[in-house]
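note to self: dont lose this again. the chain is below, predicted strucutre after it. 290 aa total, dont forget to put it in the shared folder this time
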Amino acid sequence: MISFKKVSLHCSLALFSLVVSAGMLSTTWAQSGAGKTDTSGVRAATQIEWLGQAGFRITTPGGKLIVVDPWIKGGPKTPQKYKNDFAALGKIDLLLVSHGHGDHLGDAPDLAKLNKTKLYGPADMVTPLITIGALPADLGHRFNKSGTVKPLEGVKVTAVRADHSSLIVWPDAQGKPVSHAGGEPIGFIIELENGFKIWHMGDTGLFTDMAFIAQYYKPDLVMIPIGGNFTMGPEEAAFAIKTWIKPKMVLPMHYNSNPLTPGTLAEFQAAMKGSDIKIVPMTEGQTLNF
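---
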């Protein structure tokens, strides 16, 4: 006959073992993610590192590496380890460039060649990059507003409107900078393997179709420029977020790297006062988990 006390003891020991094991797993995860902040309170599926200005390094739930607007060598706030060695970024699976200005196109052609990875960007920006010899033809993919591509398994990217300008300045054979038409700028709706959607707005001013883009694509996280002068400033960005876009989370970008973009995080936070939309502040080189 089995004693009730023995059964109770065995159950208690089993429960204790389970709790300890769970704690060890939790500790292991916390150590593996040391220095990284989890915005959800649970193990994250997506990692985002801010490279400065509008540049981001995104690791998807499936382990793919996406780099957006990589202004690495010239970026004053880019982490030094990446300036010293592009390979420190890791094997890039997808490059996205929103337009031709130097703080967005940046080092993308060199990264495409180093990683043998296609650069996806506005059609009339990619074409001149190829014709002037900055980018091999097989490493450029041209697409345009409302165009959707599936460059990686489980990852979908749609080009959307951005209200800005675009110009490519590239050295000729003698090293002299020459200006080339850069097509029209775009933003990106990046949908990852688990359905998480990021709207990287690129450089943009206000336009009312922000409301349509938000309604149609339903982004979870919006990366919005707040620096002013070339783009929206803090007050305009806050208006767009509160009035038209209304996302779950907003990540301010395109500030703190250029004296001509004086908008600050504090000004944006003040302009967002009274809203329950979560602001996700970052510092250059910081990684957040989503």
